[in-house]
Design brief:
With about 550 residues, the chain is an alpha/beta fold. The protein contains 25 helices and 13 strands.
Length: about 550
């Protein structure tokens, strides 16, 4: 089979070598540090058969001029759970977007990406260090910051329970991290949003036994729970599993060795390179070209600028947005822009009036929501309602709750939060949403604004907590909401149980068990212990929490 001539952009060295070993001629191996790069100029007139850009986790890189290349183009999104809000637009410049997270196949598609396939990250072929020679028992590598409270709570739990058996490190280079894992036996793992992270592959490659969160079938397909890794639904399970394994190092070593062998069989750079070539060969021609590509490139720049990830003067961004075609995503961006740029009230009002007068893209959720929220920012509730009503007219079967006219801005925000949005997640994961600077674009963001307008409203708080409940990685956010709810309804055992389980998910063992015990007491006082047991059993299938209570 003839291999394509490759242009690689920010590909890890081990991946580049894997492509070369497979017989691919690499005509360009570009490693820009960040910002945008004119790819045609960088290629110097060469035309590869396949261009592969790998997401960089530091500075974002945008390739200018992709629409002018005739070759097949692939973008590998390594962190779509943090960058999907802009990658969906940028991905339109490629024939295929690869995602390390299967969940984001659906989410990126919902955001408009045409072709998305799953390609997980990879491990490394490392020498085996016998367990008896390893000097560390439990290893944790990761930076602890105020933005990651769950990680701090995990580390606190491990320090309290295991003391000197724990070794923690941060800011290690890759070789230092690998050496650290190769000298350790157990690696508790914590992810930001319930995603498959690099630590799973890195620790398993080094022969560490990974004790990860129970993420579900996606992780199970990579490493078999109970045989190659251990998975834990919450901190009580983590404690029980780790206590048991520390007493039985031979069984633990067998699992760690099995995980390393799985890496060697299925999760090396060579496996990913071969799969990438296979997927690229079978995908269609999906990349935008010509003026369409320029439009998606411009929108990608705006989305990064909106998040504070792209330095550009507001005047330059205004000119860029004015040059884009008035398609719904671009028009929504234009309507959101003045709120962040500042001192553009007159311009913003004129744009809102023009969209309403021309009934432009009526019924498009992005446009109508952007217009409604922009009007609220300008204290024009009348215009905000007009955008709501014109959208409501286009809904085929609106729920009864949506038919009630918005009484005030908070009510209007709550109504927008209930509008179906093509399966989009309730938050822009990774987006630093700030009510002072940004306009809501998702359901949870609408409720954040509603609560700011009507602080302490329990119905809004309940609605937001219910919206976030199914989303992995948002337990710390839910804890604040549940804390407020339980303070107002101290005898509601269902709220107490939910708060306790969220505590356990966030590695807060004692507070979680105390909260659940109080919920049990409230349920007994109300003659609802049987209902409590059923609710707990559904959320604690292995019964570890139940055994601590009964």
């Amino acid at each position: 089979m003839e291999r394509p001539r490759l242009c690689l952009v920010n590909a890890p060295r081990v991946l580049a070598r894997a492509f070369a070993d497979l017989g691919c001629a690499i005509v360009a191996d570009l490693t820009p540090d960040g910002g945008d790069l004119d790819v045609a100029e960088a290629l110097g007139g060469q035309e590869p058969g396949l261009l592969v850009q790998v997401e960089t986790l530091g500075s974002r890189v945008l390739l200018r001029g992709l629409g002018g290349l005739s070759c097949r183009k692939v973008f590998w999104a390594l962190d779509p759970h943090l960058n999907g809000y802009w990658q969906a637009a940028y991905g339109r410049l490629f024939d295929l977007v690869l995602s390390t997270q299967t969940k984001w196949n659906t989410d990126l598609s919902a955001l408009g990406q045409k072709a998305v396939r799953h390609l997980p990250f990879f491990g490394a072929e490392l020498p085996w260090t016998p367990w008896e020679r390893r000097s560390r028992e439990i290893a944790f590598v990761g930076r602890v910051t105020a933005q990651r409270p769950a990680r701090r709570w995990l580390l606190d739990f491990l320090e309290r329970r295991y003391g000197p058996r724990l070794s923690a490190a941060s800011d290690l280079t890759y070789p230092e991290m690998i050496a650290f894992y190769r000298d350790s036996r157990f690696a508790p793992n914590e992810s930001i949003t319930g995603e498959i992270n690099f630590r799973l592959f890195e620790a398993a490659s080094a022969g560490c036994l990974v004790l990860g969160q129970d993420i579900g079938p996606e992780q199970d397909a990579l490493f078999e729970p109970g045989r190659e890794i251990e998975v834990c639904a919450h901190v009580a399970e983590l404690a029980a599993v780790l206590d048991s394994l520390l007493k039985n190092p031979r069984a633990a070593r067998t699992k760690a060795l099995a995980a390393r062998e799985r890496v060697l069989r299925e999760h090396l750079p060579a496996h990913r390179a071969a799969r990438l070539l296979e997927l690229a060969a079978s995908c269609g021609d999906n990349a935008a070209r010509g003026p369409e590509a320029d439009a998606w490139f411009g929108l990608s720049q705006f989305l990064l600028w909106e998040a504070g990830r792209l330095p550009m003067r507001p005047e330059s961004m205004a000119g860029l947005l004015d040059s884009l075609p008035p398609w719904p995503p671009m028009l929504a961006a234009r309507l959101r822009f003045p709120a962040q740029a500042g001192d553009r009230d007159e311009e913003a009002l004129a744009a809102l009036a023009a969209v309403l007068a021309g009934n432009v893209h009526a019924g498009d959720a992005d446009v109508d929501l952007a217009g409604s929220m922009a009007a609220l920012r300008l204290s024009r509730f009348d215009l905000a309602r007009q955008f709501w009503f014109r959208h409501l007219k286009t809904l085929p079967r609106p729920a009864k709750a949506l038919l009630e006219p918005p009484a005030d801005p908070a009510h209007l925000c709550a109504l927008w939060a209930r509008v179906p949005r093509r399966g989009l997640p309730p938050l822009r994961a990774g987006f630093p949403f700030d009510l002072e600077r940004h306009l809501p674009t998702r359901s949870a963001e609408c409720l954040f604004l509603a609560l700011r307008l009507r602080p302490g409203d329990m119905d809004l708080t309940r609605a937001l907590e219910a919206l976030l409940e199914p989303c992995p990685g948002l337990e710390t956010m839910r804890l604040g909401l549940l804390s407020e709810l339980t303070l107002r309804a101290r005898t509601d055992w269902r709220l107490g149980l939910a708060a306790g389980l969220a505590d356990l998910k966030c590695f807060r063992l004692e507070p979680g068990l105390d909260e659940i015990a109080l919920a049990l007491e409230n349920a007994r006082n109300q003659g609802q212990e049987a209902a409590f047991r059923r609710a707990l059993e559904a959320r604690d299938p292995r019964g570890l929490v139940s055994r601590s209570l009964f």
